[in-house]
């Protein structure tokens, strides 16, 4: 791939493939059917930094008018300087790519982007880590950072949490207040949740430390949801006084008052971790993750928490095929059409090898469908999003060999006769590091972002795939 300065010092390749929808499928859209045996991306966009290193697109959002924003990181200069990047795509065309390097040249080694959120007035927030030195230890080398961008890609302000660690999630309320969650590293691994006004004034900060119990390496917030009333839900993993790690979920008021906190360690009391959440119909959230069990290693779990913090709904545990195995859910969504379903996705591992797995629940918590996609190496689904027709799009990795991963996208329906398809995208060069990071769906169009290799494992670029229906 060439590395000329085409847009904002990026090398950009755009290819327009055949629209992956037949005339018959188009005419059946409103009957909730999408079937496409030869599905492939309608748009493929690759974005590279100036130096052949580890570039990655890490999150994607779609505006109401269909514009697509992609957050990521890319390497520039020598020595290494990662920049936060923000790209805008309209109708499959890359409009611009912007970057934020901040204090490059003052002993810093740049920024690693994690997540993004859209705010009122077309603004965009990206969060991640501002790395102080390049020692290869992301958490101990950097500080949590949030950057506010205008709709045209100019940086309006940057704010930091003066603690070493990483930002893992971000959300914005209807007034434009932005809230960030993550983990900090000190004597223990801790939770941190911080909120700023639209002008960048710190509103409130909440920290949770498992002290006097030493926190585990994974302790911290993993996901965040801002409800319509401005309240904030955060979930993750926390070491309890007993020494057991729990899946913990906390709710805050708009002003940062802690309203309630709930933990889950499983029936056996061996421990659990929460990785993602989604809004619950009627208020509250669903949380998913992995719980240790006596019978078969770990199982995937989903819990429904009402907004009041009252009695929760524990969904049926997913034990995979029932053999000795380890299951985990990394993301979940709620479908749009009646009867509504909760779809949780992740991996099922047996004998050191993991396969991608998706499990569908009814709102009462019973499993109504589950499917494992057999592979030859460590595969998993990493993200899922619902479409407007009662279906869902899921993305993950599918290995051709141990050193050759591909990006898998799968559309399924929870309705009878709803149809579906799967797409495994060829990559320019084989690499075990190829894979998706996030997915966004608006209507029936899906956008998948991640990283792939353009010229071997040492040269990873951002990749954006658009499936237009």
Helix/strand class: mainly beta
Tally of helical segments:
2
Mind telling me the C-alpha Rg? 21 Å
Poorly predicted segments: 1-31, 104-108, 134-140
CATH topology of the domain at 173-374: the name is Neuraminidase
Q: How many DSSP E strands? A: 32
**Residues in helix, %:** under 10%
The top level CATH class name of the domain at 173-374: Mainly Beta
Rounded mean pLDDT score: 85
Binned strand content: over 45%
Which shape, going by the Cα principal axes?
globular
CATH architecture of the domain at 173-374: 6 Propeller
Largest sheet: 8 strands, mixed
Q: What oligomeric state best describes the polypeptide chains here?
A: single chain
Distance between the termini: 29 Å
How would you summarize this macromolecular structure in one to three sentences?
The chain is mainly β and 469 residues long.
Can you give a write-up of this model?
It is a single chain. The protein is mainly β and 469 residues long. It has a domain at 173-374: Neuraminidase, CATH 2.120.10. The chain is 2% helix and 56% strand. It contains two helices and 32 strands. The strands form six sheets. Strands 18, 19, 20, 21, 22, 23, 24 and 25 form an eight-stranded mixed beta sheet that branches. A hairpin with a 6-residue loop joins strand 22 (325-334) and strand 23. The chain is globular, with a radius of gyration of 21 Å. The two termini are 29 Å apart.
Strand and helix map with partners:
Elements: E1 11-16, H1 23-27, E2 43-48, E3 56-62, E4 68-76, E5 81-90, E6 93-100, E7 110-118, E8 124-131, H2 138-141, E9 142-149, E10 155-172, E11 178-185, E12 189-196, E13 202-208, E14 220-226, E15 232-239, E16 245-252, E17 258-264, E18 272-279, E19 285-292, E20 297-305, E21 313-314, E22 325-334, E23 341-350, E24 353-362, E25 367-373, E26 380-386, E27 391-401, E28 404-413, E29 421-425, E30 435-442, E31 445-453, E32 460-467
Parallel strand pairs: 20-22
Antiparallel strand pairs: 1-2, 2-32, 3-4, 4-5, 5-6, 7-8, 8-9, 9-10, 10-11, 11-12, 12-13, 14-15, 15-16, 16-17, 18-19, 19-20, 20-21, 22-23, 23-24, 24-25, 26-27, 27-28, 28-29, 30-31, 31-32
